[in-house]
Design goal:
The complex is a heterotrimer. Chain A is α+β, with helices and mostly antiparallel strands. Chain A contains 17 helices and 19 strands. Among the domains of chain A are: about 140 residues, Flavocytochrome C3, Chain A, domain 1, CATH 3.90.700.10; about 150 residues, Methane Monooxygenase Hydroxylase, Chain G, domain 1. Chain A has a five-stranded parallel sheet with strand order 5-2-1-9-17. Chain A has a five-stranded antiparallel sheet with strand order 11-15-14-12-13. A four-stranded antiparallel sheet of chain A has the order 16-10-18-19. The relative contact order of chain A is 0.16. Chain B has one domain: 3 helical TM bundles of succinate and fumarate reductases (Up-down Bundle), CATH 1.20.1300. Helices cover about 80% and strands about 0% of the residues of chain B. Chain B has nine helices and no strands. In chain B, helix 2 packs parallel to helix 9 and helix 8 packs antiparallel against helix 9. Chain B is elongated and about 60 Å long. In chain C, helix 5 packs across helix 9. Chain C has a five-stranded mixed sheet with strand order 2-1-5-3-4. The longest helix of chain C is centred in the C-terminal third of the chain and has 15 residues. Chain C is built from nine helices and seven strands, in the order ββαβββββαααααααα. At the B-C interface, helix 1, helix 2, helix 4 and helix 8 of B face strand 4, helix 7, helix 8 and helix 9 of C. Chain A: It is found in: Cell membrane. Chain A: It comes from Salinimicrobium profundisediminis. Chain A: Pfam families: FAD_binding_2 (PF00890), Succ_DH_flav_C (PF02910). Chain A: InterPro entries: FAD-dep_OxRdtase_2_FAD-bd, FAD/NAD-bd_sf, Fum_R/Succ_DH_flav-like_C_sf, Fum_Rdtase/Succ_DH_flav-like_C, SdhA/FrdA/AprA, Succ_DH/Fum_Rdt_flav_su, Succ_DH/fumarate_Rdtase_cat_sf.
């Protein structure tokens, strides 16, 4: 029953599509907007900017987040910057070039029109953020400063020190709270969405749990927007926040929204390695370190000497060796994979042999310690804080870590999922990055979706909803969803097994990282699927959750999230197994060129895989959205 | 109404009254330094100075402002300490927050109470006595406050009390003067540095100045 | 190493709380403080006890959700470090560590070490923003902001909203938090236009939330993980006084 999906793309040449859409999209008159309610789940950059923008237009918005304040959402942690095709540097940047870089960076696996729109709206985002008071880096004369970032040849990245995400998020958080002040936004912090309620085929509300009291609440609205971010935390060890989860999108998936390309996860090359079994997360070190640091491993896998004592001849600068033109600055997916290759050969360093060296000794000799301290001082301090090691004296140890989900809920050009009235924006959807995301594009996508796209497309949807009265929450659909949620929590609590949700999560994460991480093979994935199924069975009988459902209970929250991960993990493996090609972050060992690079198969796999829930986690249905390239011609992505 | 109850407003009142009182300390000290003159000369000059102050209408008005300042400064302090208690709620069971600030900045209220108690004694012994008590007159016909002061400082316990109070005042000023400027809104780093230095020097000079007098009188008479 | 923990346990804001003692034997120096608490929680759950509830999310020192009093100091002994970035190598074998929640009447305890800091959000809601709707913004380079201005604004804007300033203040004042936002926006031409209305509503809101007054002890700056300067408080006072004195 596999279907072919089409996302209705507006008419006209690529550069005109979004304008054409906007010109023809339906509107809701200001008087009618106040009759309509919108639920936005998540208060990161996408969620907060969407909620604020919609409230400014006059809609009544209910905004939910599981953190104790909207300002905590994980967008806050993004370091590097945000791209925009402003061409302030006069170095040949343009909307088209940015579009092309993004498409190529994603290994030609994203939808042309969406990617173009992302580049097109990027300039307005910078204007908006500056007007909100985001303190972007400036030149002495007062104009905005840019820097370059991996995978491109122009300087189009705007940044606010190493805390661009924080500053952008505070901008949209403040915009959101400004609307709370006007009364157009109602904020529900410490509320976790547990189900989407569907009435007559349309999303009409959510079930949420008040995490402070345990109370299950019903919230109705004319439309529901999910801005709940990525699910890289499924690998347990990741650069994501502890609370990041897939539950919102997974439960939407189980209510009929398709999941697209779930296995495409970006593994970031420069994170701190795991130091022991106790570890709960991996801290990202900014990618900018690779500008001056050289990556190497010892040539001999039985090396026991301290890094400083290993002579040059016994070191393997493998990135410089394999990619002479990009060297240590090869794109993220490529450098991560190369690191894994060395670690798998047994050449990893550190007590767990799970890292590679990032060495600054040459840069320190060349420019002096002061210059290096000026460039990366804060990162060196952070490194010392976490590891206790002085990186001016000894090379850093870094290793790859799960970072960003290119996959997510399938959405059409309007960012609507396959459930009418259910939208997904930001990292929660799959749309713009293809099989690999370029640095500094994630903040951009989240903001652009929330500020500039959703306000138009959501309105187009709501135009014929104005006759629908306020959604009452005593509808049987709400009752049914609430019962489902409560029953699930009861089943966790009454299981009384021996293992905590966290322990299950660690096991699952390790399985997934080993077999569905940087390098995937048919055998490995088949084995992983089997193991995940077993683990899922064990989860049903051996889970230990203390306390009750009617109180603060963070273990119960975790149990629900891990239960969803257990199902999603299998789908990720299924997705990775079915895609018999290598593209971007998805690298199948069987499909590589002679010199070990990804071999794409445009003939058979030039599509997005949108998986449909059937009621059984092991039997998803594959639907395909063919990717049509009218304007560009996919080429081989080479960084040699 | 919230404007009046507002802590920034209340702190401004605290700052203004505090700074006025600090200014008074200078005048008061300059007057009292006359006590350091040779005994005979000091007696006449000090008494005539006291007489002058008592008779001048401007000084009288200023002294009313002064009393008002003392009163407002104290009432405000009491109000703010209630507010503080309300804001704090339950206290910590294990508290080492003190590492981050100086003890005197945290204990302005306690220092203030010492100063206030001292002021009451000070007023009673000298001011009240001078105004309403029966005093002998000196050769110029002025009330002989000088002798009262000198006699008072013959007693060791009185000297000790005086010094303790002045030290409390010194620490109160050490934090108070610069804090008052912050409260009133001086945020420029350079001026803050200047005020910090000036404020601390002021506190030290005032403390030394006020402590010299009782010591001088006490030891001078002993020998 | 071996660690003795005395952790504040409290069911909710109405109940009475107390220190409970726990012992951990195999604490690694490389563990973060929160990972040490994770280890304790797994142990407690397996014993059939309720785990210690504490707030945390990003665990890289930027989201501001974590924050407890460790040995009587907000975020523990290390300077400019959040609780999540504190590692066990800052402690010695055999140490006893006291862990308490941030306490202030504006931060009611939710459970154990979890407190409700939405009072800080309310202060922002009252005026901590630039009133610009999506789409109204002019071209970004049309208003130059000098390098120094932008850097100074950033220094104030770096606040992560963890509430350590309130917890460290003897008067439970939120002056540092509130002033950081006022100062951030007042130093940029985009935000300065509303300064005088903003400062009055934010200061009033700070009062209504039940925070105490500032006595310039400067403890907040010392304990702030981001090192936000107390001069921001002076600036807030300045803007407040100016706004009041210039009121028409």
């Amino acid at each position: 029953m596999s279907k072919t999906l089409k996302a209705p793309i507006p008419e006209g040449p690529l550069a005109e599509k979004w304008n054409n859409y906007k010109a023809k999209a339906r509107l809701v008159s200001p008087n009618n907007r106040k009759q309509l309610e919108v639920i936005v789940v998540g208060t990161g950059l996408a969620g907060a900017s969407a909620a604020a923008s919609l409230a400014e237009m006059g809609y009544n918005v209910k905004s939910f987040c599981f953190q104790d304040s909207p300002r905590r959402a994980h967008s806050v942690a993004a370091q590097g910057g945000v791209n925009a095709a402003k061409n302030y540097k006069n170095d040949g940047d343009s909307v088209y070039r940015m579009f092309y870089d993004t498409l190529k960076g994603g290994d030609f696996r994203s939808r042309e029109a969406n990617t173009y729109r992302l580049a097109e709206c990027s300039a307005s985002l910078i204007d908006q953020a500056v007007a909100q008071g985001v303190p972007f880096g400036r030149e002495y004369g007062g104009y905005l400063r840019n820097r370059s970032f991996g995978g491109v040849q122009v300087s189009r990245t705007f940044y606010a020190r190493g805390q661009t995400g924080q500053q952008l998020l505070l901008g949209s958080y403040q915009a959101l709270l400004r609307q709370q002040h006007t009364g157009k936004v109602k904020l529900y912090a410490r509320h976790e969405m547990l189900d989407v309620v569907i009435i007559d085929g349309r999303a009409r509300g959510i079930i949420a749990r008040n995490l402070d009291t345990g109370e299950i609440e019903r919230h109705g609205a004319h439309t529901v927007v999910l801005a709940t971010g990525g699910f890289g935390k499924i690998y347990y060890l990741s650069t994501l926040a502890m609370g990041c989860n897939a539950s919102a999108i997974w439960r939407a998936h189980k209510k009929g929204a398709y999941m697209a390309n779930p296995s495409w996860t970006q593994i970031h090359p420069t994170s701190l390695p795991q130091s022991g079994e106790h570890q709960s997360k991996l801290t990202l070190m900014s990618e900018s370190l690779r500008n001056d640091g050289r990556i190497w491993v010892p040539k001999d896998k039985n090396e026991t000497r301290a890094p400083g004592e290993i002579p040059e001849d016994d070191r393997d600068y493998y990135l410089e060796r394999k990619y002479p033109s990009f060297g240590n600055l090869a794109p993220r997916d490529i450098s991560s994979r190369a690191a894994k290759e060395q670690i798998d050969l047994g050449k990893g360093v550190g007590p767990l042999k799970n890292a590679v060296y990032l060495d600054f000794s040459r840069a320190i000799n060349e420019y002096g310690k002061d210059v290096i301290a000026e460039r990366y001082g804060n990162l060196f301090t952070m490194y010392k804080k976490i590891t206790g090691i002085d990186a001016y004296k000894e090379p850093m140890k870094i290793s790859p870590a799960a970072h960003f989900s290119m996959g997510g809920l399938w959405v059409d050009y309007e960012l609507m999922t396959t459930v009418p009235g259910l939208f997904a924006i930001g990292e929660a959807n799959f749309s713009d990055h293809g099989a690999n995301r370029l640095g500094a594009n994630s903040l951009l996508q989240a903001c652009v979706d929330g500020y500039f796209i959703l306000p138009y497309t959501l309105q187009n949807y709501l135009a014929d909803q104005i006759k629908i009265p306020k959604i009452e929450v005593d509808h049987p659909a709400f009752e049914e969803s609430e019962k489902l949620v409560k029953d699930q929590m009861q089943s966790f609590l009454s299981c009384k097994g021996k293992k905590t949700a966290e322990e299950f999560h660690k096991e699952l994460g390790k399985e997934l990282y080993d077999k569905c991480g940087l390098l995937r093979t048919k055998n490995g994935l088949e084995k992983a699927i089997e193991n995940i199924r077993n683990l899922r069975e064990e989860y049903k009988t051996n889970l230990l959750v203390p306390g009750s459902a009617e109180e603060v209970n963070s273990e119960l929250e975790k149990a629900g999230r891990v239960a969803d991960y257990m199902e999603l993990a299998e789908l990720m493996c299924v997705d990775a197994l079915h895609r018999e090609e290598s593209c971007g972050a998805h690298f199948r060992a069987e499909f590589q060129t002679e010199d070990g690079e990804a071999r794409r198969d445009d003939e058979n796999f030039c599509y997005s895989a949108a998986w449909e829930w059937t009621g059984n986690a092991s039997q998803p249905i594959l639907n395909r959205e063919p990717l049509v390239f009218d304007t560009v011609k996919p080429t081989v992505r080479s960084y040699k | 109404m919230i404007f009046i109850k507002n802590s920034v407003t209340r702190k401004n009142l605290m700052a203004i009254t505090g700074l006025f009182l600090s200014f008074f300390l200078i005048i008061h000290l300059l007057g009292n330094l006359q006590l350091l003159l040779p005994a005979a000369e000091a007696q006449l000059q000090y008494n005539s100075y006291s007489h002058l102050l008592g008779g001048n209408i401007v000084i009288k008005l200023v002294s009313y402002v002064l009393y008002l300042c003392i009163l407002l400064h104290s009432i405000d302090a009491i109000y703010l300490s209630f507010k503080k208690r309300r804001a704090n709620g339950t206290s910590y069971s294990y508290d080492r927050r003190g590492r981050a600030s100086s003890w005197y900045s945290r204990n302005m209220m306690a220092l203030g109470i010492i100063i206030f108690v001292f002021l009451v004694i000070h007023f009673k012994d000298f001011w009240y006595h001078y105004k309403f008590g029966e005093l002998p007159v000196d050769t110029n016909g002025n009330k002989d406050l000088y002798t009262i002061v000198v006699v008072a400082f013959e007693q060791l316990w009185y000297v000790v009390l005086y010094i303790v109070a002045i030290l409390a005042l010194g620490y109160h000023l050490l934090h108070g003067v610069f804090s008052a400027h912050r409260t009133m809104g001086i945020y420029h780093p350079m001026y803050n540095r200047i005020i910090n230095i000036v404020g601390k020097s002021f506190a030290v000079i005032i403390t030394i100045g006020y402590i010299i007098i009782p010591l001088f009188l006490y030891f001078n008479l002993q020998s | 190493m071996k660690i003795t923990l005395k952790i504040w346990r409290q069911r909710d804001c109405q109940s009475k709380g107390e220190f409970k003692e726990y012992h951990l034997d195999k604490v690694s120096k490389d563990m973060s403080f929160l990972e040490m608490l994770d280890t304790l929680n797994i142990k407690l759950i397996k014993q059939g006890d309720l785990p210690v509830e504490f707030d945390h999310d990003c665990r890289e020192g930027i989201c501001g959700q974590c924050g407890v009093m460790i040995n009587g100091i907000a975020h523990g002994p290390l300077k400019n470090t959040t609780t999540c970035q504190l590692h066990m190598r800052s402690f010695n074998d055999g140490d006893t560590i006291y862990v308490e929640p941030f306490k202030a009447s504006a931060f009611p305890i939710v459970r154990d070490l979890k407190v409700n800091r939405s009072a800080l959000d309310h202060i922002i809601t009252s005026g901590g923003y630039v009133s610009v709707d999506t789409g109204q913004a002019p071209e970004a380079n049309s208003i130059p902001v000098t390098f120094e201005q932008a850097e100074a604004a950033f220094d104030a804007a770096a606040c992560i909203g963890c509430g350590a300033c309130v917890a460290s203040c003897k008067n439970s004042s939120a002056a540092l938090f509130t002033s950081a936002k006022i100062s951030h926006l007042a130093q940029l031409p985009q935000g300065d236009k509303e300064t005088s209305t903003r400062v009055v509503s934010m200061v009033n809101q700070m009062e209504e939330e039940g925070f105490g007054h500032c006595t310039n002890t400067e403890a907040c700056e010392v304990e702030c993980p981001e090192g936000i300067s107390v001069l921001n408080i002076a600036r807030m006072n300045y803007e407040y006084n100016r706004s009041r004195l210039m009121k028409k």
